[in-house]
Amino acid sequence: xxxxxxxxxxxxxxxxxxxxxxxxxxxxxxxxxxxxxxxxxxxxxxxxxxxxxxxxxxxxxxxxxxxxxxxxxxxxxxxxxxxxxxxxxxxxxxxxxxxxxxxxxxxxxxxxxxxxxxxxxxxxxxxxxxxxxxxxxxxxxxxxxxxxxxxxxxxxxxxxxxxxxxxxxxxxxxxxxxxxxxxxxxxxxxxxxxxxxxxxxxxxxxxxxxxxxxxxxxxxxxxxxxxxxxxxxxxxxxxxxxxxxxxxxxxxxxxxxxxxxxxxxxxxxxxxxxxxxxxxxxxxxxxxxxxxxxxxxxxxxxxxxxxxxxxxxxxxxxxxxxxxxxxxxxxxxxxx
Length: 336
Known about the structure:
Cytosolic phospholipase A2 catalytic domain; 9 strands; disordered N terminus
């Protein structure tokens, strides 16, 4: 576990419109005389993180297997499952999610340090990710977190993989912080949303980064208040399952996801605020620590809580790799 200080300034850029013909792309990429060490930085992005599944699948097909994987928030979840060999199980679970089923994982906690207890998600995570120590993974792995007391960036590079992933996605206010070696850890996206620096620190010659923060004018969070209404109203059946028949949990879930007549709901406000923070910090970190290849799946139109859109997001992740295929070849060739 390592403490890292903050870095500075400005813009990650975005993909262009024209995409190469996927059928014309040679699989795998031609072998290089000398292969550079490769780092993969997977950024945070809540539900949009399902795009990472498509990214790593496509990289595998191209014969690009990173030596180092650093993940923040949902990036740690996908990256950790990938290295542990459990990506197919995660993909199957992600594709099976509906709005109603998603609500069943929201265990409302009255009092405490988060709206959700996180126990139901932890149970699901451990079912799909059997006990694994990070040191047993075939490649180096870093789960990026933030220490609540100091704001220091903390890298988890050993110990229980599932525990590290939970610390990496402990969104403040939503999930309680995770205790680790005498510290309280929260979502690393607060300090390093796309952890390029972690890959560089472990010796990556080529760093491929995947950013999910792009969200022009906040459309992915604020444009459709109805999305939050649907989570609560789609119907009462979803709320009943999520609340396990408890009236207090049912009321809390409705309060969290149901927007008012003239103002956004609590969930909308919290996520929009976090999205703004992630965007600003990402711009600063990417400007100061640019990757060699930056992929930005075009998922800004997808609300941050739409976990039921895995099919679309996985496809967007694959498309992002195809769009950068020539940049990947160039970086791997010239930096070898």
